[in-house]
Amino acid sequence: MSKFTEDSKQLLEHIGGSENIVAVSHCATRMRFVLKEDKKADIKKIKNIKSVKGTFAQAGQFQVIIGNEVPDFYNEFVGVSGVDGVSKDKAKDAAKGNMNFIQRMLANLAEIFTPLIPALIVGGLILGFRNVIGDIKLLEGGTKTITQLYPFWAGVHSFLWLIGEAIFFYLPVGITWSISKKMGTTQILGIVLGLTLVSPQLLNAYDVAKTAADKIPFWDFGTFHIQMIGYQAQVIPAILAGFVLAILEKNVRKIVPEYISMIVVPFLALVPTVIIAHTVLGPIGWAIGSAISGVVYSSLTSAFGWLFAAVFGFFYAPLVITGLHHMSNAIDLQLMAEFGGTNLWPMIALSNIAQGSAVVAMIFINKKTKPEEEQVSIPAAISCYLGVTEPAMFGINLKYVYPFLAAMVGSAIAGVISVASGVMANSIGVGGLPGILSIQPKYMLVFSLAMLVAIVVPFILTLLLSKTKFAAKFAPED
């Protein structure tokens, strides 16, 4: 009998038994259930199980936080329950049966960017490091950068752009690959499609605006022309093209005999998609992306930018609960492509910090009365300050409610400071405290002030709220 046997039996009982489980999987810290009837799960009793650190429902799944030992717990639970586990992807597919159309659409879009996040984070760190050594005048009385004085670091600066360019300029390749993977179609065709959007023979997307219309190169087909415009760093054209390719391939495969499908299907799926991408989808997607980024940028830089910042800063954390926060990646990347940076992403980093600071306050509040809670709260706070907020929100802040609200308020105030000061990030990257590395050098000082606000305000507000009737009203039962 393993140390999780009894806890697994209790979880099975309180979740409604094996007959209530449609699918079960696990991620890094959580058990993920798709249930026939969510109301059969006794959340209060589940939270009282020794190994359980919290529960929440998201994207059609009932999730139980276990911690780093979740693989062992999962194996024991599968043995006790007799339920066959499935992959996370299959569990997500099953969960979509519990969603409406809008939720399914947004979940699908979010899943496109999830596999790309590691690369985007690496790219953000690289651009941030290049900021430090190549853009900030740290030496000789603030007149020289490190790269200006040291050839070695100048070489590092130049070399690292090889990776940064691969991640951000050639982002459409990653998007079309991710869509092919998600849709279960031929992934190499997705990669090839992405490459046709960023080929070196095309006019670079960054040069289109400064090129006269009659100077843009084109393919001459006699009776008509197709402009040779690239879509480097463009998000929406790649999404549209990726889905058209997947849909075409699936439908062509249905009607083509199996014995010639290897030859016919790739040709009839890829070639028409590339043509459509460069004649219809690319221009339309560019227009849509420019409109979205233009609206966001104008909102953040207008006289009412502070209001937009306050609303976004306040509600970003609830977006994380729904899983819709991944959608902000697309907007950030579009802003980077259109304006050479993003003023949205700095607010996300500040929201991460604010949630962590609320947890730190809870550590202080419960230090004597609930010392065992530090097993969850200390790692959760560290995780927040490094850009991952889910352990803090689901393990601590939402459990008590008032620290979550305190963090939302702190995030809103810090966001207003950031936007009112015109703070721009070169790229998205690691959230939380390391996020300052992605901020454009001239804004680092004022962003530091916003970070300080995101640390101090949630901490103090959490302490104050802990002494109110509001906190007592939502106090979890031990």
UniProtKB/TrEMBL annotation:
GO terms for molecular function: kinase activity; protein-N(PI)-phosphohistidine-sugar phosphotransferase activity; protein-phosphocysteine-trehalose phosphotransferase system transporter activity; trehalose transmembrane transporter activity. One of its GO terms (cellular component) is plasma membrane. Residues 107-478 form the PTS EIIC type-1 domain. Residues 5-87 form the PTS EIIB type-1 domain. Coiled coil: none annotated. It is a multi-pass membrane protein. Pfam families: PTS_EIIB, PTS_EIIC. The chain crosses the membrane at residues 106-129, 149-171, 183-203, 223-247, 259-277, 283-300, 307-324, 344-365, 400-423, 443-465. SUPFAM superfamilies: Glucose permease domain IIB. The active site is at 27 (phosphocysteine intermediate). It is found in: Cell membrane. Signal peptide: none annotated. Keywords: Cell membrane, Kinase, Membrane, Phosphotransferase system, Sugar transport, Transferase, Transmembrane, Transmembrane helix, Transport. The keyword Glycosyltransferase does not apply. GO terms for biological process: phosphoenolpyruvate-dependent sugar phosphotransferase system. This is PTS maltose transporter subunit IIBC. It comes from Clostridium tagluense. The gene is treB.
